[in-house]
Amino acid sequence: MRTETSVTVYRKDYLPYPFDIPEVSLVFDLDPEATTVRSRLAVRRRTPGDGAPLELDGSDLELISVSVDGRELDKEAYRLNESTLALSTLGDAATVEIVSRCRPAANSTLMGLYVSGGNFFTQCEAEGFRRITWFADRPDVMSRYRVTLRATSEYPVLLSNGNLIESRTLPDGRAEVVWEDPFPKPCYLFALVAGRLTHRETRVTTASGREVLLQVYSDPGSESKTGWALESLVRALRWDESRFGLELDLDRFMVVAVRDFNMGAMENKGLNIFNAAYVLANADTATDANYEAIESVIGHEYFHNWTGNRVTCRDWFQLSLKEGLTVFRDQEFSADMMASGLDTAAAASARAVKRIDDVVTLRAAQFPEDGGPMAHPIRPESYQEIGNFYTATVYEKGAEVIRMQHTLLGDAGFRAGMDEYFRRHDGQAVTCDDFVAAMESVYTRQHPGRDLGIFRRWYSQAGTPRVAVELHYDAPARRCTIRLAQRCAPVGVEKNSPNAAAKKPFHIPFAVGLMDRDGRALMLNQDGRQTETAVLELTTEQQEWVFEDIPSAPVPSLLRGFSAPVIVEYPWSDEELALLSAHDTDPFARWEAGQELATREILALVSLHQTGAALRVRPGFIAAWRALLEDAALDEAYRARALALPSEKTLAERMSAIDPPALAVARDFLRAELGRDLAPAWRQVFEECQTPGPYRPAPEPAGKRALKNMALTHLLAGGDAQASEWALAQYKQATNMTDRLGAMAALVNHGDPDIATGVLGEFYEQWQQDPLVIDKWFSLQATARSTTVQTVRGLMAHPAFTLRNPNRARALVFQFCLNNARGLHVPDGSGYDYWVEQVLALDALNPEVAARLARAMDNWSRFVPVLRAPMRAALERVRNHPGLSRNVSEIVSKALELAA
Ligand code: TRP
Ligand code: ZN
Fold it and tell me: Where is each Aminopeptidase N-like N-terminal domain found (predicted)?
């Protein structure tokens, strides 16, 4: 294998493509061993007579012929190398025809055209289309596609983008179909699917009265598992109509599930292709979390039809233009679905649960990224491999940046900004700046003389800002002064840049409230309006706000609703946090106060453990947790979040030297103490939260199941003998996967090892035919408390394990390397040896997936010294491996060169 050369691409170097390619016709003769693709391109020079060569991208293709205006070229008339086909003698307009071959069955990268389960699928974003045919593989070249598919009767279903316009049988007995997509699109949105598939469909009438056909395709035999996905699709369609006035623009919209897929799903125009994990569900095989994820990913891909497809990206640096915005839209969709039909208070709690879950993800995945070697602004300035920039920063922080604009403009203002964005840019390939400009037009109308100039820094600067809060209360004057100060040190590549010192303040919408010492909300006067929550717009390094008529010394409730992706610094006392945790009227800030208490408790236990002292939990903490557990006014879903201990990843962010074994000991100790000390309350919760009757994947019963399973875990962790019986009974009698898996997890992590082994064996026997269920079986073991490198190596030898299926690799290898810190980080380095082996093995098959595993070592320099050295050595071993992909090479070299 050849080592791929690494070239850095810079945003500042953007140049428009010299040609338009308004029409593309593709003819596929599908064959797993060698598929022939005939491509006919209508090309037109953008600047007539400029003489620029037509340079087309290609990868792993066999060229058969090239013709221009019907005349085949001989080899001297074009230039061909590993990645480019260049024609330098074209006039101002020409028809270029290229015949080439690719090898779908041998394609283990899952980019371009590949075979999975005997069927054909494509994945073109970001740069996969070049593996199908030579083309201008960049998002600002938009074309109308006409696609002809020919295949034998082994492939009865033949799908592509847009509308089916012809279907016939060829003289040789093969089928031929023709699809036409009326909307010009970049090639990354091209898709085809061919094979033996079953489907479920429904027809709905859109807001303007058009009847459209919605279909969900999947493997034969899985038809009972596509109902929820199709219902979710209908809800998504309705929601985009009502919340954003955006209608489906096609007569037919298809979703196809595939078992082998690099990520979650892909928004190809009219033909979304999904990882089967985000489509297939029934009560027996899918958990509440799976149902929720399906609804959210179905929504996400559907919403891309407007935010991504109708308006697309000019270049890949603008990725967050579509991803940040679409994640924001799917988050709002899920929140609205969770709150629908509830009264005001219950709806607020339901929305807070969704917000909490999203912030937990942000903190566990994005905050570490933003302080590490891969830190980048949501609109990166450079990359070596764009596949490495489908990150938590571009997606999740990108969504936060959109959400801040929503906060600044208000719901109606944001909607007006979206309308303006589509009015200006429908049908175009644009930039993040174009989006902000549309929003700014509304903001400036709302606030004459103000603009989003400072706000735009969220797009160009990386790092998580810290906001330090000072509060002064002047009792005689009944005046409260709040001072905010922000700072954000250079991170990652910023440290090497010439203007590292020049980072400037951000525009931060900072939502605050004040609580009195009896736990009542105080009213704030902001711009002549009385409000419980004021949004302070911090735009400089330091600013001060004064609130009059505050009757008593308040406790501040800060960053309500997580109004900005920042870290708050304020010296609350434990008593103040307990007060907020019991009474804050903002449900997000209330949750946050409890999390801060738990963080302090766990970090204190870590210190005790590190100094060899006996571990002890302070009674104040137990009392705060008891208050939450027994607060029946809180719905179960919210209580389950409030009582969840912060994850190891979130806690690691708070440590100067990350010590995974100590963290694990501390969290385990606290969980067991809570289990013992609050046992009667946990038992009561367990009994009250049963959900008899048929399974419903709705927020209310799902909240009960979450809290009940949490009770089970805590009781078992505390050594409760009765709970062990409860868990076994729940496992045996479960009518749904949430309960079955919840019980099994409690037993595997905290139960008798023999019972756990028995249950794991039974589970495998029962579900071995269902790959998504077996993924859960692998994941649970990969992250189990007692799992070591040896356990994982043993599981890799299991006949059901394969590295070639990304879901399976993620279930075992990734879960162990990314979510089992105590198993991975052992001082003898055996965990790191395993990581090196797996990164290299995966890299030979699938570089995109390998690069994600490679990121497990990103923050090596922040670990305790005994681990730092072997982690570094492991990274060096990967970097020095001959034949490394560009994907993995970028990750490991940045980890070594840009470490914190
Ligand atoms: N655009 C897709 C989404 O966010 C994700 C995606 C990008 C993807 N590249 C991919 C999916 C490669 C699979 C493989 O919805
Ligand atoms: Zn997306």
Answer: 68-189
